[in-house]
Amino acid sequence: MADNTITVVGNLTRDPELRFTQAGRARAVLGVAVNRRWMNRQTNDWEEQVSFFNVVCWAELAENVSESLAKGNRVVISGRLEQRTWETTDGEQRNVVEIVADEIAPSLRWATAEITRTPRGPAAEAGVGRDRRGTQEWEAPSGTTQHAPEEEPF
Questions:
Q1: Which of the chain's termini has less CB crowding within 10 Å, N or C?
Q2: For the purposes of burial, counting CB atoms within 10 Å of the CB of 152, is it exposed (0-12), middle (13-18) or buried (19 or more)?
Q3: Cβ-based burial of 62 (10 A; exposed 0-12, middle 13-18, buried ≥19)
Q4: Which pLDDT value is given to residue 107?
Q5: Range(s) for CATH 2.40.50.140 in the chain?
Q6: Would you say residue 47 has pLDDT above 90?
Q7: Which CATH architecture best describes the domain 5-114?
Q8: What is the tens place of the pLDDT at every residue in 50-61?
Q9: How far is CA 96 from CA 26, 27, 148, in A?
Q10: If you average pLDDT over residues 1-30, what whole number do you get?
Q11: Average pLDDT score, the chain
């Protein structure tokens, strides 16, 4: 079975653009520039090539990306390549190859990041829930990450 996995590290070329489908599903589109630099052994000069990619992400990932990242941020993107075809209003066929992201993270090579876990589900949105065993109810204090103390993600 063929595998179509890609990982790129680069800088965002624009702020993520968040939109919602008619069904209410979040979709974010962003651009990433990937620089490749090498020494030309014949001229002893550094040479550089830049590749630009469009990236699409869906659902919670799209919402988190649009809230967390901005133009210029260095990111690590893991996903798959997909080709889309459509017809313009003039009847011309168009094609695009883009990265559909499964994971997007800030690169910590030259920066730091603060991680905030997002709540999931209707109870989490209300700031209430149960511990892992389902026995003890808890309520998150106002302005804090909404998860039970024994569910610390780190």
A1: N
A2: exposed
A3: buried
A4: 93
A5: 5-114
A6: yes
A7: Beta Barrel (2.40)
A8: 999 999 999 999
A9: 21, 17, 44
A10: 93
A11: 83
Structure token pair of residue 69: 């990242």
CA distance 25 to 111: 31
**Token digits for 126?**
């209300």
Q: Where are the alpha helices (DSSP H) in the chain?
A: 59-68, 121-126
- Nearest of 32, 30, 107 to residue 63 by alpha carbon: 30
CA distances from 42 to 7, 38, 48, 49, 104 (A): 31, 12, 15, 17, 38
Amino acid at 77: I
Token representation of residue 81: 């390549």
Question: Which segments of the chain are extended strands (E)?
Answer: 5-12, 17-20, 26-40, 45-58, 74-87, 93-106, 128-130, 137-139
pTM flag (> 0.90): no
Here the tokens at position 97 are 């190859």
Is 116 strand, coil or helix? coil
Nearest to 104 by CA among 147, 41, 55, 37: 55
Nearest to 52 by CA among 1, 20, 100, 10: 10
